Amino acid sequence: MSVERSNKLNNQLDLWNNLNKNNTLQEVQQYIKEVIELRGFSHQEVEKTMLLLLEEVGELAKSIRKSSTNMGIDKNKLNHYDTVESEVADVFIVLCNVCNKLDIDLYKALKDKEQENIRRTWKKENKKEG
């Protein structure tokens, strides 16, 4: 392993070791920004990152389908399907990366949107009994 690769790995491990349940959303978003830089993806265009987000959401859907439904899956690709938890994490990581590229504070965006949602009138879908 090269010295540069070893340093990047050690830097990522140091950042990861500092993550804990008490971190704020802003701190987690900053962590993701820093590891994306270390991994060499910080200069990726936001459009390409958005495509990656859509891909990760698709992988999450496949994982949920595999674990929570009786829908068929390609048994030859069974090892390509990761856990739901892992796919949720991938979606979150890439979403934070999109936010970082657009200078969006995810916590503030969440608070602002929920303030709107609190005032919103929600219509429940009627389920037909049968």
Query: What is the structural class?
Result: mainly alpha
Name the poorly predicted regions: none
Beta percentage is under 5%
Distance between the termini: 64 Å
Oligomeric state of the chains in view: single chain
Task: Report what the structure shows.
This protein is an all-alpha fold. The chain has one domain: Helix Hairpins (Orthogonal Bundle), CATH 1.10.287. Helix content is 66%, strand content 0%. The chain is built from five helices and no strands. The relative contact order is 0.11. The mean pLDDT is 90.
In a nutshell, what does this entry contain?
This protein has 130 residues and is an all-alpha fold. Helix content is 66%, strand content 0%. It contains five helices and no strands.
